[in-house]
Amino acid sequence: MSRVYSPPIRNTVKPHMRLAPGRVAVVQVLLGLLLLALLSRAIYLQVVQQDFLLNQGEARFRRALVLEANRGVITDRNGEPLAISTPVQSIWASPVDMNPVPTAKLAALSRLLELPQAELQQKFADKKREFVYLKRQISPQLAQQVMALGIPGIAKQQEYRRYYPAGEMLSHVIGFTGVDGKGQEGLELTREKMLAGKAGSRTVLKDRRGHIIEDVAAIEPPRDGQTLALSIDKRIQYLAFRELSAATEAFKAKAGGVVVLDAQTGEVLALANTPSYNPNNRAVLEPEMRRNRAVVDMFEPGSTMKPFTVAMGIDAGRITPDTWFDTRPYMIGPATVRDSHPNPSLTVSGIIQKSSNVGSSKIAAMFSPEQMWTFYRQSGFGISPQSGFPGESSGRLRDWQGWRPIEQATMSFGYGVTVSLLQLARAYTIFTHAGALLPLSFTKLAVPNPGRQVVKEDTARKMRQMMIAVTEEGGTAVRAQVLGYHVAGKSGTARKLVGGRYASDKHIGLFVGFAPATNPRLIVAVMIDEPSIGGYYGGTVSGPAFSNIMAGSLRILGVEPDAPSNNTLIPEQQISEVREET
Predict the structure, then answer these.
(1) Per-residue pLDDT at 217 exceeds 80
(2) What is the pLDDT of residues 226-271, one digit of tens each?
(3) Active site positions, annotated
(4) Is 326 a member of any domain?
(5) What would the pLDDT profile of 446-458 be if each residue is shown by its tens digit?
(6) Domain-embedded: residue 74
(7) Which of 239, 294, 303, 435 is at a distance of 20 to 30 A from 347, taking alpha carbons?
(8) pLDDT tens string 322-331
(9) 8 Å CB contact between 107 and 195
(10) 557 is in which domain, residue-wise?
(11) Which residues contact 279 (CB under 8 A, 6 or more apart)?
């Protein structure tokens, strides 16, 4: 048996390539130190710097999204919507998460959003910003087209846009909201907290393309705003706005206002102004259009104040409707008090019907300035009507201690005191509600608020009866008649102050009245500011608008006539105008 030969194994490592034992130890130590350093760094990052790193990561990928609350609906007293919110989309970008946008996509984005490319690039340039709006309140369809471009860092969010079905006829009452959904004018502003609700939130993680990966906290749902039911009747509002617009146009007036009140509750059923504006399209919106004249403008009310002077005298027992007065012109110091339509003598009823300045000034002279001032204040003059409407005027009633005799006389027929149309309409509730001044309300009332007694119920009844004559033949406002109903009221014509002097060619024409006079249901106050053609007396310019508004409103509410057979309208050509300039 042969043996296999195996050559001896030789050490092929050359002597100069062998590591000395000391060098091996050094390498091992270095590797150990490196491993220790890596381990220490890992412990430092995972333990000591954990919160910092988590925050940095979340800062880049964690987003808190606002879940918009749906703003509350505003309705009229019958549930008709007057302001509603419709869902829209807003496009925003996170520049810190964006890469340079390809030219083609930038051009497409510019076209869809109707924004210049330079403006978009400027928004994208600030890499420190995490949120910037590109376009707000666009249609969901357009937002979908934007998102289809697939540009990283661009996202959409749902918002709500306010829509006003009634348009310009209710713009001064409701107001409008800004692009951020907050109320800017009218009841949208005063009832902001009630209507706005409370926004919710959602915290999510997003990837670099802006896509939501997951929710990292419980979603807090939004709480929608409450529904606001107004006292406004949309049908009466439409009628009032239409007739006011027609009157303003017919007499080429600078402006106009109308207020319709429930005579027994103080609820505002309609309030309109001209000029007006469309809250759905505010591209061209002049300050004059936004002005809520019926609430904020102050003016001297002229002869519409005379019923309060007469009521003061009757309630104090110093006069009766049949008391006679010498109504020829007379002097108070160097000033002469006279009537535009002189009568040698008139009863108190005649003073109301013929609108006698002389008669009302002599009734006022029966009282001290303090007594007259107190009565006017109790009637709501010189104090805010507290309707809750923004910017409402309190008018002006100077302190009685500074009154001169001639000033007390002129205040009795509406000069030297200023009011708003809303304030004046409210004051007439004294005559319609058993002598009590009613609080105003722009919201629908379940139970009427109690009024404050100013005069006796019998005084209010006598005033109603006397004021009917104003709209009958020989009165100053025959054009304010309503077929089938007794109408009571008072016209007023006041010169306007221009540069500290009363202008002879600038007037305010007024009529405030109520019907049915035997059991009042509605109060309507109409103001025409600076009529320039066709007349300027209150009964002439405001009377017809009052008649149309009152007639239509009574029909809408189904109010039974109180003069079905003995009330006929006097033909226009047979109406003899009674001049009245106070």
Answers:
(1) no
(2) 999 999 999 999 999 999 999 999 999 999 999 999 999 999 999 9
(3) 303
(4) yes
(5) 998 999 999 999 9
(6) yes
(7) 435
(8) 999 999 999 9
(9) no
(10) 234-277+290-566
(11) 162, 164, 167, 168, 171, 174, 175, 176
